[in-house]
Amino acid sequence: MNKKVEARARAEKMKQLRKEHKVTVKRTQGLLKEQKRIHRDICLTIRDTPKTIPEIAEVMEMPSHEVLWHITALKKYDVVAEEGMCGEYVLYTRAEEEA
Amino acid sequence: MSESTNPKKKEEKDEEVRIGVYTCYCGGNISDAVDCEHVKKVMTDLPNVVVSRTDMSMCSDAGQALIEKDIKEKGINRVIVGACAPSLHEQTFRGTVARAGLNPYLYHHVGLREQDSWVSHGDYRGATCKALNLMTAGVAKTRLLAPLEPIRLEAEKHALVIGGGVAGLRTALDTARRGIQVTLIEKSPFLGGRMAQLGKVFPTDEDACATLDKLIQKVASHPKVTIFTQAEVTGVSGYVGDYQIKILQQSRGINNDIAEAVLDADMPKVPDAFNYGLTERKVIYKAYPGCYPPTPAVDWAHYNGEPIIVNGQPTIFYNKPKNFDLKVGAIVVATGFKPYEPRAGEYGYKELPEVVTLPQLIRYLELDKTTRTLTWAGRAVNDIALIHCVGSRDTEGVHEPQADGQVNNYCSRVCCTATLHMANELRERFPDTNIYDFYEDIRTYGRGHETYYQKALEGMVRFLRYRGIERPEVVAAPEGDTHPVLVRAKDSLSQGEEMEVAADLVVLAVGMMPTQVDELVQMLKISRGVDRFLAEVHPKLRPVETAVNGVILAGTAQGPMTIQESVAAASAAAVKVAVLLGQGEVQLDPFVAYVDPEKCDGNGACIEVCKYEDAIKMETVTINGKDVKRAVVTPANCAGCGGCVSACPNRAIDIQGWTLDQYDAMVDAIALDLWDLMEVPA
Amino acid sequence: MMEKLLNTLKIDALVVGGGIAGMQSALDLADQGYQVAMVEKEASIGGKMIALSKVFPTLDCCSCITTPKMSAVAHHENIHLFTYCEVQSVEENTNGFKTTVLQKPRYLDADACTGCRMCEYVCPIDLRNPFDLNMGATRAVRVPFSTAVPQIAVLDMENCILCGKCEKACPVGCIDFSQQPKLFTLQTDTIILATGFETTKRDAKKEYGAGELHNVIDGLMMERLLAPTGPYGRIIRPGDGKEPDSIAYVQCAGSRDKTLGVEYCSRVCCMYAIKQAMLISGSLPLADITIYYMDIRAFGKGYEQFFQNARAMGVEFVRGKVAKITQDDHQNPVVRFESTDNGSKVSERTHDLVVLSTGMLPSYDTKPVYRIPAGDDGFVYVPEPNSAPCVTDREGIFVTGAAAGPMDIVDSIVMAGAAAMESAAYMSEKQDQAEIHEQAEESEMEVAHV
Questions:
Q1: Per the CB < 8 Å rule, is C344 touching B446?
Q2: C-alpha dihedral, A36 to A39 to A45 to A50, nearest 10°
């Protein structure tokens, strides 16, 4: 019972806060949605064969510098890993799922 | 506050030794050359090792926190870190283990960077194997570490500052302002050093002597400062907090009664070094009007002992040098620089009378500040050539070495701005002169310096740029030429064309050289860098300290600097003195000899080899009711050199923290062939 | 905890800025027994230096110099650290200076946070990481960087969707979305300004691509690429991830440039370019490195020798001003320059990556809060640089490091010692005067009694 009350109070508080920060929350939510789509697409693109930044950019029809940034983010948080080089470019692949 | 549980801890000797081993990547400095993860793995299996870890930088707060956590949570009671040289971060990690409640001497540091990764040029397997040996040896020593207490000594709240130029004066003033007694000694009879020889100085165009005088007045009137001119250090002993200094001071020779009259008297003259030999002065002299102390001094090196008529009285002057001792806690070396003296023939120097150095020209212009026509050697000067980098940026094998075989391969830092400052001054005072500036790179780096370059460009100074190895050439002009000298250079600003400038005066922008202080360097046991200037421990970690505790550097003794930089360095030196002596106590590492009275048989071999005063002596002690002689160490006087250790036939002496048993263990480990443990792919 | 500290402790000196200069000044004061408060506007101390790779002329890794100093500051019993704080106003009173400081909200309980980064791992949004000059990624809630001091997270409310995941993940329950900014005051005898510098913006110069060419980066970005903790973990160009084969440096990109209103030399760019060139040739031994320059200013101790080593290693030095940078169809920057060593011929060369050796700019105007004017160059005005390089024209307030003009690390550290000296001496003399004054009053009273 108590827990429920707490949870409700918390939900109410968060709702209130989201209202207070309406503008930034909305903008960031939009950003996040787009980001999630891109990350999913990148992961799909390199799922079967590791690819370089220009290769991914070509498949995704996205500027290569933006692809690099997303890859950097995915790599930092262990979603994507390097897998050798292809000429002067690094090949990226899905990171192995943690056990 | 410090717990002195030393004896108790010794009783608890049987406590289990639990070692934490930490191998630092050093941000790639080590990990690029050594497989740190492999080192970590191998260390895990050594006896007594409880944890073995790596980190990108162990010395970071997070790295240190790792060690603290292991001490607290895993009961680690000995710590070893393999990282940079101990001189950089041994103290850092001793602090870490102390914070976690462990005796700071239960820590051992292995220099994996300087001794391994930085010197193993690309041999990854070799470097990794060497790291295994070094670390295994370190662990072997760590296993035998015992808690120690630092030696605490009362510190003399008194500093000696050597050198009465702007840096020495500034250090003296700042140290005194912090309530510490200061003795300032100056070799020459007058304070002010090189700065007194300058006219207007950049970046403010203030009068150097006026600024200097203000500083001298403050120093001279400060109740905590004692000044000795014509004084030199002749002996140094002791250690930080308690240095004994022997000083030799020449007589001034003149008392105040005749101070005025003596200057008017007739007497022999000598070239005036203050004016770089441009003028002569009497053998009894004042360096410059308004100098300090104001009393004239006898130039003993040139006074021939003959009577001089003063106030109608023939007077003979006697030098009665005085020796006296000082006890100080710290020593600041502010011995300054000297301008590079070009060798005869270098750019025509000393062969062509029209070739002078920049310091000479500064003095020349100071001698007559009002004249609006520039003459040199009786001729009107219209065309002036300035040449940069004389005695700086020389290349070994390309440029002719100096008498001692050395070349100055460093940049002297101040000459570019000083030269352009002069160029502008010449253009302003003598608007009809044409100025040609021969340079390789213009280095007006400091705040306000670039303005002088801009001004010179706008002021129609003609710049000619030569390449490093193709320096300008100065030759006498052919008979009947309009000018006495010609300066030739390939000017890369004019498509590499060979240019010839006819000049009335050639000014050499000479660099800075360290003052000759060989004896002082030996007495203080400090060191010099490859540039022969005095060396600091590390330019960023300890930029004004020498490797000798309590000996600190200030100003251009350490390297070329502007006035502003010398002053800042002098204040930074004073702050180190204040930190060192302010608390009235200094702490020394306890790495000194210790005699085991049970093993000592009183043969005295140790005393014979000991080079330090009162460090080890025989005392009569009573053992089992019998009076016997035993060697006893006075820790404060022992330098921990280990001479006595090797002399003792009974293995009765050890250096604490570096015992023979520890060495044996290290040597055994270093000698192990660990190639089998190298399963790293090549 | 902070309130208790502020109410009970007499603080002697305030150091504004926790970069290398501020840290050194604070340590040099604290080691003399003075109580020091350090106020830093970022969430971690370390300043610009902590983001660098290795430093000239010793090539020590930068962390080896900075992180121990950061740690020493954090653990010193006489230093009280206030991060993520900004000075709002300074009032002079009989006891010295009363400074009002704003504690910006981290949106978490700083005393409770352990820096475990659980919050960061669960945060759903990836943001450009300012610490990596926007090349790398971070999250809306994060520990600023791996060696940050203090190791406390900070939440970026501007980029937070308030999903509450971090709050749930935090093992100590320290997230507080409704935290508000707080004001507090510090009473001190002296203030040391160590507010540092900014660098020329990459888009400052239209001729150099106005920041729109992705393979034209600035000096600090290259520092991050070279740092072991850098965004990519290797040297690749931000435009498309290519490992560069030919790298060029454009010197004086933002210094000695009247069109940008910066006439002065930034003092560090020659040396950092040379240093980076050496580090690159270590990582990419086959890469060609070219430095376009006007004058090489290797003036410090050991610097000229460092420059000559780089030359001997094969770094190409081309004297000439770069007029324009464009890019070809493969995103390769094309450098148009006038070589003064080659008969002032205008040539073009294509490189894989161009680094602008951006200069140092003033970062903070001390006039509004401290009533201390700036010099013509915008840095803090020092009336008597030759006799008192750290003394501002307001008594009791001192300046150090790059706040007083472009300066390298070595010179900043030395000047930091000097600033500590000046402020310590100022305090001793004030103390002495107070004692003399007291004694005089006492003797006057005695006279009155007689």
A1: no
A2: -160
